Amino acid sequence: MRRLVVKIGTATLCPEDGLDVNFLDSIAKQVKNLQDQGISTTIVTSGAIGLGRSIVKNINKNLNLVQKQALAAVGQGKLINYYSSIFENYGLTVAQVLLTREDLANRKRFLNARNTLEELINLGIVPVINENDTVATEEIKLGDNDQLSALVATLIDSDLLIILSNVKGLYDKDPRLYSDAKLIKEIHSFDEIPKDLGGPSEKGSGGMITKILAVEIAARRSIPTIIASGREDRVIERVVRGESVGTLFHIESDKLSKRKIWIGYGVTPKGKLYVDQGAYEALAFKNKSLLSQGIKDVEGEFSSGDAVSVISPNGEEFARGIVYYSSTELEQLKGKRGYHEVIHRDNLVILHQ
User: Fold this and answer.
1) Residues 6 or more apart from 326 whose CB is under 8 A from it?
2) 3-259, superfamily in CATH?
3) Predicted structure pTM score
4) CATH 3.40.1160.10: which residues of the chain?
5) Looking at the DSSP assignment, which residues form a beta bridge with residue 160?
6) Is pLDDT of 209 > 90?
7) Which of 76, 117, 92 is nearest to 27 (CA)?
8) What's residue 253's pLDDT?
9) DSSP H or E run through 178
10) Phi-psi category of residue 165: left, alpha or beta, with phi > 0 → left and psi -120 to 50 → alpha
């Protein structure tokens, strides 16, 4: 193993009022021990809004977007200071990397982020990555950092993704509702994942559903994922040693190129294309391109070069792709015969069949 990505959630990092210094010290010590073994660790951290909330007392619990941005602005500086000072105690230098959805949606910025991370790792510096919530232009969605950690893992060709949470792993049913719920040690197929995954975590924005999305993204680059409790003693080192901690997801999936990972998971779709049964089967099972004659309806406003969702006849998104035509042009072309290639198969990612 050469590279590792560790995601730390808000509820793990800030379980009470403020950041758990002892916990972060344990993380720094483990990162140093792994570095001494030739293993680099990249950290994706939550906690800016949670830490800001602990500092700013005169604010309501039900936060709107502007309030979240304000708390992130207060908490982010404090958060990276904690990382910097604690990791320095072990001779480690950290680098703050703040990303937005726009950074992941723009291909050039996506590649620039990868190059920066590669250089930091080569220099022996520990990247500490967070979403730049302060300048977010849309509502902060559930579990962004779960998804972000998986995208980072694919960017740097990580050998393993570890998601540290306030739960021990994936259970066969919701442990908050059922006292006899059992921890699942290994998952080898998405069919083995229980349907009832519970809601969002109490302190953070994510939940098990968003963690499973992260598992899916990582699996498309053949990267195994472990979901475990951050409160397990020396959890990162034990995982690297091969001990059974948490839930291991080692799922075989069609491997995607980094570019297709970007198309399928790093870009926010600007619109939707509804296709007929023939087009659905051609795309999902025959590795074909999407032609205009297979499009039944167009939703949203988008330009040539934008990403869109492709919707099956039963109303579910099953693919994403980069379009050659704008929404205005496709309103005129939809359903028409003739070779009008709307999405080339090289620019199409099948999410589910």
Assistant:
1) 302, 303, 304
2) Acetylglutamate kinase-like (3.40.1160.10)
3) 0.88
4) 3-259
5) 4
6) no
7) 92
8) 80
9) none
10) beta
Q: How many CB atoms lie within 10 A of CB 353?
A: 11
Q: Superfamily for 269-350?
A: PUA domain (2.30.130.10)
Q: Mean of the pLDDT values across residues 226-253? A: 93
Residues 6 or more apart whose CB falls under 8 angstroms from that of 227 comprise: 163, 165, 167, 169, 170, 208, 211, 215, 246, 247, 249
98 forms beta bridges with 130
List CB contacts of 347: < 8 A, sequence separation 6 or more.
Answer: 263, 321, 322
Tell me how far apart the alpha carbons of residues 308 and 319 are, in angstroms, rounded to a whole number: 9
**107 backbone dihedrals φ, ψ, rounded to 5°:** -60, -40
Query: Sheet holding 307-311: strands in order across?
Result: 295-299, 271-275, 307-311, 317-322, 348-350
Six-digit token pair at 246? 């948490």
Angle between helices 107-122 and 144-155 (to 10 degrees): 70
Q: What is the mean pLDDT of residues 283-294?
A: 94
* Residue intervals in the chain for CATH 2.30.130.10: 269-350
Beta bridge pairs of residue 271: 308
Residues 192-207, buried b or exposed e (16+ Cβ, 10 A)?
ebbeebbeebebbbbb
